[in-house]
Amino acid sequence: MKILISELISETKSVFFKKYGTEPLWLVAAPGRVNLIGEHTDYNDGFVFPIAIERYTVIAAGHAEHDKHDDHDAAAIADIYSINKEESATIQLDGLATPPQTVVWSSYVQGTVQNVIEAGLRPKNFRAVINSNVPLGAGLSSSASLEIATATLLEAITGQKLDSVQKALLCQKAEHFFIRMPCGIMDQFISAMGREGYAMLLDCRSCVPKMIPLDDSDITVLIINSNVKHELTGSEYPDRRRQCEKAAQLLNVPKLRDATLQQLKTAQSVFDKEPDGTICFRRAYHIITENDRTVTMADAIVRKDWKTCGKLMYESHASMRDDFEITCAEIDLLVEIAQSTDGVIGSRMTGGGFGGCTVSLVESSKVDKISKTISEQYCSKTGIEPVISVTHPAQGAMILDSKS
Ligand code: GLA
To answer: Which of 13, 75, 173, 297 is the 20 to 30 Å CA partner of 128?
Structure first.
């Protein structure tokens, strides 16, 4: 990881220098995440159990040449450049930009900047270079890492610190109102507050995270990218959210977090009367059982009860496949292959769904063999080359350098 992030940092700094002829004053980083278990539970006020991964969005920044404070004709703006997209964009630092018709990479920066400014942090004009090695559209929270890196940059520039919970919520608000993606709170939370060597059991109602050590050298977290793009901008995610809300209504509880399996079973006839009742019933079944699995898995990790962890991960996958219906054939295949591979403890899809990645816990001594087996079998059945990477629980958002 140290190598991965240091390469990213030096590339970002050197592009900044080439573009602007000066060293950056501020350097920040925020990671992507992988969720070990607890999918779509966050917006139901339930539990999630993610780790930050050793993949980051890094931003290097410095003062702009012209600033509104010194030159009244200058607009209050930031010039930003994305190394990944090889594209520049201008961010407004005053007034409210209207949400874009089409969301592009800089929309995440604009949405976050205006929420942070509204919260009272007022940066002078700046220019910045952005670089990320969180794969896009893989369900590893590249967007949240960009938002949290942006908010962290504004903290560095203004020298004012946001409360971490507030910071995560401001970035989530940018997704809701600027990007129009009704996401939960998990991704922004773990990107802001992840800790090296720890997984985070987050109660999404109280917003209180509990850090659980995940540092047994015999166990490795493997992320396998199916290379089937996950697109959450369509209607699938909001549909799931609506179905969960409807199920909560039918159960007469504020959120599905408050319902038990017994309550759900007893209410079967209430669901049966609704046109989409069968679907809502299954969605609720997933959420209620998934919340339970998430809390149980965190406890099993504390006890190093890997067998239970594995069982829960496979159950979670089956629940996402059959009841929540957010997996796809390639992802199911990856989990199936993993399940029959020696040394794999547990495996499941991670993130919003409809493609993206699986997360597996595997025996460290067998990582190479496991990777080779899964890669060969997946490729021979789908013709797609998966990308397999090992990750350790990484550190959340960081100000790496601040010279003023
Ligand atoms: C996306 C959302 C999260 C969460 C996951 C599913 O990543 O941004 O809030 O709902 O999907 O667990």
So the answer is: 173
* Domain 2-214+393-402 fold: Ribosomal Protein S5; domain 2 (3.30.230)
How far is Cα 177 from Cα 165, in angstroms, rounded to an integer?
A: 18
Top mutation candidate among 40, 189, 348 for ligand 1, by most atoms within 8 Å of CB: 40
Cα 143 to ligand 1 centroid, rounded to whole Å: 11
Enzyme catalytic residues: 187
For residue 330 and ligand 1, the question of a CB distance below 6 A is answered with no
CA-nearest of 370, 312, 358 to 331 is 358
Q: Which atom of ligand 1 is nearest to the CA of 40?
A: 12
Q: Report strand pairing: 77-82 vs 126-132.
A: parallel
234 Cα–ligand 1 center, Å: 14
Ligand 1 pocket test target in 183, 189, 256, 354 with most atoms within 8 Å of CB: 183
Does residue 5 have its Cβ closer than 6 Å to ligand 1? no
Domain ranges of the chain: 2-214+393-402, 219-391
Cα 75 to middle of ligand 1, angstroms: 36
Query: Do the Cβ atoms of 51 and 219 come closer than 8 Å?
Result: no
0.90 exceeded by pTM: yes
Does residue 40 line the site of ligand 1, with CB under 6 A? yes
Separation of alpha carbons 65 and 224, rounded Å: 44
Measured by CA distance, the residue closest to atom 1 of ligand 1 is: 352
Classify 160 as helix, strand or coil: coil
Contact 360, 224 (CB under 8 A): yes
What distance in angstroms lies between residue 397's CA and the mean position of ligand 1's atoms? 19
Write down the CATH number for the domain with range 219-391. 3.30.70.890
Which three-class secondary structure state does DSSP give residue 399?
strand
